[in-house]
Amino acid sequence: MADSHQSTGNSGGQGSASSTSSRGQNRTPRRSRIIVEFLGSMNLAITLLVALAIASVIGTVLVQNEPYTEYLIQFGPFWHEIFAGMGLYQVYSASWFLLVVTFLVVSTAFCVYRQTPGILKDLRRYNLQVKEKSLRSFPASSTGDLGQSQEDFLAHARRVLKAQGFRAREKTRDGETVVAAMKGRWNRLGYMLTHVGIVVICVGALLDGQFLLKVNEWMGNVEIETRSIPESQVPEISRVPVSNPSFRGSVEIPEGASANVVFLPVREGYLVQDLPFRVELEEFRIQRFSTGAEQSYESDLVIHDPERDEPLRATISVNDPLIYDGYAIYQSSFADGGTRVEMEAIPLGPGALRGVDFPGRIFDEMDIPAPGGEELTIEFIDFSVVNTQALLNEEGEEENVFLGPRVDFRLVDRTGAGLYYRNYQNPIPQEGAKYFLSGVRESPAEEFSYLFIPADADDSLDRFRTYLTMLHDDEVRMAVAQQAARGSEEMMGGEEGRQAIARTVSMLMQTFAEGGYPAVDAEIEQRIPEGQREQLGGLLFQVLNSGLQGLYMEVLEEEGVVAITEEEQRWLEDAVSAINALNFYGSPYFFRLDDFDHREASGLQIAKAPGESTVYTGSVMLIIGIFLMFYVSYQRLWIVARPNEDGSGTHVVMAGTSNRHRVEFEKRFAHLERWIIEQKNVGDDDSPDSATNKND
Amino acid sequence: MSVPHEALDFERPGFFRQLLLRDWAYMALVLAVAVTAYSLYGHMMDRYDTGGLILAAGMSAWLGWFWRPWQLFSVIVAVLSLFGVWLYGDDLARGDSVFWLNYIGSGQAGVMWMSVMVYLSTAAYLVGLFSTSDFPYRVGSAFAWVAAGAGLMALMVRWREIYLHDPSWGYIPVANLYEVFVLMVAMIALMYLYYEQRTGQRGMGAFVMLVVAASTTFLLWYMFDRDAHMVEPLVPALNSWWMKIHVPTNFVGYGGFAIAAMLGVAYLVRHRMERTRPDSRVLARIPSKDALDGVMYKAIAIGFAFFTIATVLGAMWAAEAWGGYWSWDPKETWALIVWLTYAAWLHMRFTKGWRGPGMAWWTIIGLFVTTFAFLGVNMFLSGLHSYGEL
Ligand code: HEM
């Protein structure tokens, strides 16, 4: 039997005469035997390896753990059902996947079990029964007739073998001496280490694999929670006790707050895992690069454990976790922790100067009366202080610009529909001017489109608000329109015509204020017959623009500006574009961020993985084993010596095998032959590479 | 005919007796450099940095003993790198004004030289394949040495450049796709040169350098099209001591697999030509199937061993950065797939005794799997490893 094991190691094709694989032995098969054979068989192992690889591929191609609705949209109801049923959305925790892994572990374990006795015997048995004939059929084999006596030869051979690191045994029968030698036995240990290592790794991983939780879920003791509700309201059935041996969950803790649970993501929902201690976040800090990108972030934590007399303080950062009582606490992310904000709702219409101040808090929502009488709800989503982005500067080059604080929110109407907004507190420079930016989008999946409201000389919104108010004021508009129409009496046939012009200007300005250029277009289309549209239309736009310009002069006059500069002219163009864009903005207010009280939250991952050291132990075994298997070559050598036919010397047959590196072994064998049989130096003549130069 | 036993050279000299004077000299040099570095900068190093220095010095000394050509090579690379660093001083702008830096010794210029040398080497090996003289092979081999040297020097100098950009950004240049591609090109070239020198089979070069040239082409495209060589600060998760050993280890793995695949191609070419054109001159220039098979196994063995270490290191790093040693992140999962592919290959060879074209094909498919794990995952799949995006 030993031979059969030894043979598995012999590289195929060589030495087959002496060591034909004998996996299919003539043995009366017993059932247990067959099972062991099957489980430990190479075919099964390879099949399982391939199955595991394919399953792994599926898990990476199909994005895992998305919300089920996403999958439904992507695949349609039919395939969704099938995929969900096969567990393809959580391949790595699907039962069939675990089954494949289990089988691989079992198969590897059986493989080791089956091979071990053979290997052990192999290491002890030198196989002194070899026959001269079979030695001659080895690919690495050689014979010689020496003048030496048998004893002299054997003494010499022993010395060479010993010097070359072989262990040898010998036996003499009927005048014929068989020397059997081997070296590199660590190679065989390598096999054991490698395969036991794999079993150990898998067992460790299984310990950490939330196996108990799965069983409990099958038994109905635990049910996942899919609603987003406060932690305190999560029912008992979705909570996991402290006794759970392994888990990996996350929790966000705002500064000054604490938590004694983590959330475990499970399929489309989550579970709440209780902790035996409470984690408090004292302070959270971020270091940033000059580009504004995060360099690192860290949290000052306090662990309150009833078992401890005093709370434990520790600071964790990315790549530097705290290990506490078998729980590992990692810095994984950060978020807003419920920053308080002071907002002003500035009507983007008649009352632009009469804003309403109101307080808010991130993650809260509040109702706001809209100008039209209906109710709107503002939901605060996020806040961040340091925002840096590469923008174009005056020379048109990219430059990192510090954008300052911003608030994200959603505005929802009665029907539940709503748009997402992102407003920056400070005006942001863009190609030489400054703007208050407000981004709007329909869903978080889209990019923001920005409303650019030009800031005035004081970096404030005041001028825009004044302009907007005046634009919506009938009296002011009329006065400006009168101004604009001045001097048109002659052309339009007197005062009457002038008034008509003024009314038209005012009307156009109003139309523009309420609906932007599209509304003006529609107005023109409605009022002017097709044929004259082109000519008159152009004229009307000119008139409108002079009205808007006139209005601006009023505003500037109020501010005390006399001469218009280029910047101020640009301001008007920007303001007009902004008013035009209000039409698409979708909110009756501009929500200005006045002030804030920043509060951050630290995203922690807390994990308990009792199998981790087991996995590492297995990994070390695996690595050591692999190196032994690859780089220690297991070599065996046999020498048969008997007196010559005529008694004048010794007849020698020598053969060897190795389970690795056939080419190198043949070289080595040639050296051995030279030393043992020819009894010459290898380095002496023809052979260019000296035996000592065997660093590879 | 027989000499006295005592005179025979079978007595294995001890390891140290095999060392020549130059080996000791090299060892002393490495030690001196390490000690000097430590006495100059030791006060700025934490225990990881110190460990890294010891590891690097130890590995270099051992490599020099194990493979003598490494001695001269590493000295030249080190001298050129230090020269570049010295020329820079504290001023990144010297990269544009100092001739040496601008045209030869800066990170960027070094990469360009590496690329040119890779192409020249590939061309020379291909010429060698179709000629009867060994001269083109020797030229190809010389160019490959220069390419590897230029690549390593470029990385060393770039290391300094990153700190000059902004000291707070500083990181070792194995953090983005551009840098690891340079590393990979140099690594494959060096590993190949090792096998060439050990086996004396220069005919492998025409095949192996093809994959190096392909990587270089990708690198150049990535550089010119995407400005990949620009220095950007690291995301916090990458700022870890683990990265410094995880990434290079991985590339020994990738390098081994790439070489094996190209030898697989050589094997198939030879296999086919033996049947179709047995007296072709080219056939005689390709190493025998046995020789190819032997080196292929060695390349896969070293690749597999290092890839295993790299994966374990990656798991340890993940445990520290992400809170779990295994998350079935696409990159991790693909590493497992690659690993299984080669584990199966090794089993086929050693338990079933498979040889021949089938196994050669397997190594080629294996390279595709590896490439997907290396590049495809970044391009097509999202996950925690998304920093290497294309
Ligand atoms: C995930 C599972 C496994 C992995 C990663 C693995 C890995 C390895 C490696 C790396 C080698 C070394 C190849 C070489 O000698 O160059 C090897 C050899 C071997 N494996 Fe596995 N193995 C696994 C499972 C199995 C199973 C299930 C069996 C049993 C059928 C098995 C039987 C063997 C045998 C007989 C050898 C040859 C040992 C020798 O003669 O040196 N392996 N394995």
Description:
The complex is a heterodimer of chains A (696) and B (390). With 696 residues, chain A is an alpha+beta fold. Chain A folds into 5 domains: 32-120; 135-184 and 636-677, TATA-Binding Protein; 220-245 and 247-337 and 601-608, Tick-borne Encephalitis virus Glycoprotein, domain 1 (Sandwich); 340-453 and 594-600, no CATH class; 465-592, no CATH class. Chain A contains 17 helices and 26 strands. In chain A, strands 14, 15, 18, 19, 20, 21 and 22 form a 7-stranded antiparallel sheet that branches. A 5-stranded antiparallel sheet of chain A has the order 1-26-25-3-2. In chain A, strands 4, 6, 7, 8 and 9 form a 5-stranded mixed sheet that branches. In chain A, strand 25 (635-643) and strand 26 (650-658) form a beta hairpin. In chain A, helix 11 crosses helix 14 and helix 13 (494-527) packs across helix 15 (566-585). The two termini of chain A are 33 Å apart. Chain B is mainly α and 390 residues long. Chain B has a domain at 235-390. Chain B contains 14 helices and no strands. Chain B is globular, with a radius of gyration of 22 Å. Classes of the chains: A alpha+beta (696), B mainly alpha (390). At the A-B interface, helix 3, helix 7, strand 8, strand 11 and strand 24 of A face helix 12 and helix 13 of B.
Write a compact overview of the structure shown.
With 696 residues, chain A is α+β, with helices and mostly antiparallel strands. Chain A contains 17 helices and 26 strands.
